[in-house]
Amino acid sequence: MTLKMQAAVVEQFGQPLVLQEWTIASPAAGQILVKTEACGVCHTDLHAARGDWPVKPTPPFIPGHEGIGRVAAVGAGVTNVKEGDRVGVPWLYSACGHCEHCLAAWETVCGSAQFGGYTKNGGFAQYILADPNYVARIPDGLAAKDAAPIICAGVTTYKGIKETKARPGEWIAISGAGGLGHLAIQYAKAMGLHVCAVDIDDGKLAHARLMGADAVVNAKTRGAEEAVKKITGGGAHGVLITAPSLAAFRQGVGMTRKRGTCVLAGLPPGDFPFPLFDVVLNCITVRGSLVGTRQDMAEALAFAAEGKVKADIELQPLSAINSVLHRLGRGDVAARVVLEFDSSH
Ligand code: NAD
Ligand code: ZN
Ligand code: ZN
After folding, report:
1. CA 151–ligand 3 middle distance (angstroms)
2. Same domain flag for 146 and 178
3. Looking at the whole model, is its pTM more than 0.85?
4. Is 223 within the bounds of a domain?
5. Statement to judge: residues 241 and 129 lie in one domain
6. 148/296 same-domain check
7. How far apart are CA 301 and CA 295, in angstroms?
């Protein structure tokens, strides 16, 4: 008998996802099959479904890179993961393990990396095929729905904060207080930083306060950069831009302290006009950051398991995916939506 699963599929860029029955694949040698319990919905899934980026996935594909579940079956030769283990299938689906970047523990930039929910089918489905060498180990006591946002939004912001090189007692400005940003605020506080949250939505800024932000600035108000400079006494030592908006990038550089670092994590389509003069004269470092390595992942999950960081989640069924993506595009999701799967299947 061929077993079937429900999946939300991108058949055409810019069109609603289609709920379909797909055959559940058996794991090949070196692969595992994960039974999805929960999967977060990241703004990247929206970019993927729209075909926003220069390197595009190939439809039909299943998005989702915050999928958490139990290993249902293992392929031949798999020894490091066993049936019943709890794992997460992240954006960094796999890497080569041998190139200069993999050898330097920078597997996130491996030239042969595959991406979950993008170049490989992801977690908007009842089962996910995964590479056991790159799945996240979910600590005991951390529920699947709470772990889901950590394996992309959490690890990305935790790594991004580290990449700002801001030290305890210094200021970080977090631009974009949504799915990534609301976790970034909590990580930054747990790491001993002062946090100034920046967003265009007053509701998100009120939420940012609840998440622990010491100060908030509405990016739409005139003089927002100056406001951050005043609050931070000359600009934030670190700036992390998670906003999916080009306007936020220029502004984020303007919020950076002399000799500070502005980390770019948001991925709106397009190029941003680089304020060369400001960057050179103020000796600012501008740095890209992409998710996190497996070690970053373990650290990011440990913060959550220890209760220092907690995703604020709204649960929805897989069948609601199109309305969730629509709301995400309009900035209408308070923090993170997590798709919850029926465990009886
Ligand atoms: P989200 O929609 O949950 O949150 C975005 C937030 O940015 C919202 O609160 C919104 O109000 C705010 N915002 C919009 N325009 C702004 C502006 N001009 N200034 C300040 N804030 C603004 O999205 P998300 O899931 O947090 O993802 C954010 C971005 O990060 C997306 O582009 C996504 O693709 C990218 N991303 C990158 C990585 C990475 O590894 N670099 C990982 C995950 C997501
Ligand atoms: Zn993501
Ligand atoms: Zn590699």
Report:
1. 20
2. no
3. yes
4. yes
5. no
6. yes
7. 10
Nearest to 226 by CA among 253, 195, 263, 254: 254
Atom of ligand 1 minimally distant from the CA of 175:
20
Please indicate, yes or no, whether residues 55 and 101 belong to a single structural domain of this protein: yes
Residue 345 in any domain: the answer is no
Q: Are residues 223 and 89 in the same domain?
A: no
CATH number of the domain encompassing residue 270: 3.40.50.720
Q: How many domains does the chain have?
A: 2
Residue 26 to residue 169: CA distance in whole angstroms: 51
Q: Which residues, including other chains, have CB under 8 Å from residue 212's CB and lie 6 or more apart?
A: 185, 186, 189, 195
**Residue 328 CA: which ligand 1 atom is closest?**
2
Cα–Cα distance for residue pair 245/175, rounded to 1 Å: 10
Q: Pick from 245, 264, 288: which residue ends a domain?
A: 288
Q: What is the pLDDT of residues 31-71, one digit of tens each?
A: 999 999 999 999 999 999 999 999 999 999 999 999 999 99
Q: Tell me, using a 6 A CB cutoff, whether residue 193 lines ligand 1.
A: no
Instruction: Decide if pLDDT at 343 tops 80.
Output: no
Q: Which ligand is nearest to the CA of 43?
A: 1
Containing domain of residue 275, as a range?
Answer: 154-288
Q: Say if residue 13 is in the same domain as residue 140.
A: yes
Q: Which of the listed residues 242, 290, 293, 312 should we mutate to test ligand 1's pocket, taking the one with most ligand atoms within 8 A of CB?
A: 242
In this prediction, residue 272 carries a pLDDT of 84
Q: Copy the structure tokens of residue 183.
A: 């976790």
Please give the distance, rounded to the nearest whole angstrom, from the Cα atom of residue 65 to the centre of ligand 2.
6
What's 140's domain CATH number? 3.90.180.10
**Nearest Cα to Cα of residue 261 among 280, 242, 286, 282:** 286
Indicate whether 189 pLDDT > 70. yes
